[in-house]
Amino acid sequence: MSLPRAKLVKNFPGCPVEATLTYLDGKWKGVILFHLMEGTLRFNELRRKLPAVTQRMLTKQLRELEESGLVSRTVYPVVPPRVEYAMTPLGMTLKPVIQALAAWGDDYVFCSPEGRELRLASDGLRAPVAALKA
Amino acid sequence: MSLPRAKLVKNFPGCPVEATLTYLDGKWKGVILFHLMEGTLRFNELRRKLPAVTQRMLTKQLRELEESGLVSRTVYPVVPPRVEYAMTPLGMTLKPVIQALAAWGDDYVFCSPEGRELRLASDGLRAPVAALKA
DNA sequence: GTACGTAGTACCCAAAAGGATACTGTAAAA
DNA sequence: TTTTACAGTATCCTTTTGGGTACTACGTAC
Hints:
The structure is a homodimer of 134-residue chains. The first copy, chain A, has helices at residues 16-24, 29-36, 43-49, 55-68, 89-92, 95-108, 128-133; strands at residues 41-42, 71-76, 82-87, 109-111, 118-120. Chain A has 134 residues and is of the alpha+beta class. In chain A, the strands form two sheets. Chain A has a three-stranded antiparallel beta sheet with strand order 1-3-2. Chain A has a two-stranded antiparallel sheet with strand order 4-5. Chains A and B meet through helix 1, helix 2, helix 5, helix 6 and strand 4 of A and helix 1, helix 2, helix 5, helix 6 and strand 4 of B. Chain A binds a DNA duplex (30 and 30 nucleotides) through helix 3 and helix 4.
């Protein structure tokens, strides 16, 4: 439809940040995009990369990503079935975003040794504070 | 506790991307951070910037951001009450992330003229495709 | 003396998100 | 002949998230 690229986003009940987060929202979308950035994957390949996800959830998240146009789904009519998931060109434009998210996570988020709990580098952000000046 | 900055994140049931998203997750956190990046705001100032948020939700989201250590809350014991919210140094490290999210939102997310519905620039990403090669 | 602005809480409810489990059909491998 | 891998669905249930409304206290302005 060749919409004029009017930044109608300004009317969004929030801001461009929220707008983007809308598409990344969902428990597994971040990881999925992260892995697909590296290359096409089959359904069960993805599943193995996300040990904790259930089949149902993986399917759901992939369908949503597909509907957004960020990920493509290609079915090969063979048996056993072969379905490949890949980033679309539009999806690839998210690369800088995913990289920014990953970089921050690497620098500031830790798992407590015991379990699954996350924690921020709140202990004064010793080393990281340098990055602040840069 | 001066944890060695071991990247325990590698054990996270997802990846650094998910880890970061964990902290941005919540219907209003993105917008709040976006606005606080520009400077300290009082509770009702924020509220005016987010016409659609309810008092209860704004409070909740702010408390969560405070608990993460991304935002600080300063109470001035005067009457009427005065409470100021500001980014912490740790919160400020999110700036590149917020900027990346905002940039992508600006470029690729549109509101349909009618209403509140979001849509991606899926019509072939005409202009944006150039950015892909860069 | 009533209303207003400030920064919230408390309580209840609806909707959405996520999870557990079981089931499908085909072909090749064991 | 049973099992395995593949890529899912279907059904049900629990948890989380978000929203609506009413209430608070205090001091000032009208």
